[in-house]
Amino acid sequence: MLFRSFVHGGLMRTYRLYVPAVYTGANPVPVVLNLHGYTSNGLQQELYGDFRPIADTANFIIAHPDGAIDAFNNRAWNLLGVSPVDDIGFLSALLDTVIAHYNINLNRLYSTGLSNGAYMSYLLACSMGHRIAAIASVTGAMTADMKLACTPAHPTPVMEIHGTADLVVPYTGANTNLPVDTTILYWVSHNHCNPLPVVTTLPDVAVNDGCTAEHSVYQGGDNGSSVELYKILGGGHTWPGAPFA
Fold first, then answer.
1. Which of 41, 85, 123, 199 has the most CB atoms less than 10 A away?
2. Spatial distance between the Cα atoms of 168 and 193, rounded to a whole number of angstroms
């Protein structure tokens, strides 16, 4: 694991970079941005939503950046323009930095994240879509303003994982947050997917957590794109399968 930093927008920005041992530089590999939630940081997200064992066999590089400190002394991603911090520019510069030092497949740059980081992944798909191939959101959604301003550059595969009992980002929406189903249907429409999903009830592999899971796949989008929703029935504001609460 490499801890690195650079100055962007007058701020020292930090990130953790995981380069799997199987990486040799002989072939271009994907990059995954894994963005932490509000009040968290890159190290915590690395442990919480841990893709390192997958990267070790699938051979991709993972970046765990740190959000900037906000007015409440918490690390956050500036989604709503409430501060002058340019997180879109920072994450773009982060990708540039990784690309400059490693053999990267420029067609396979991805973003995922939890909560605040999940919102940021949607924002990247909307505003930096010429670089981001696909995103996955855990306990996130889009805001109404984000949807209005969204200009995706291409059909973008999207996956959402969301609990129906999430009290922080309610499944049915609250305030400026769109309902999860509205967010999903926006991308279904943008990608020209089949509006009728293939729905599967998943095996209940954790019988003591009070939750079950339903998987909906909207297939047949442009350029082979799809939209997927894992609805965690009874699930809260958490990363399913995380090693700690």
1. 123
2. 29
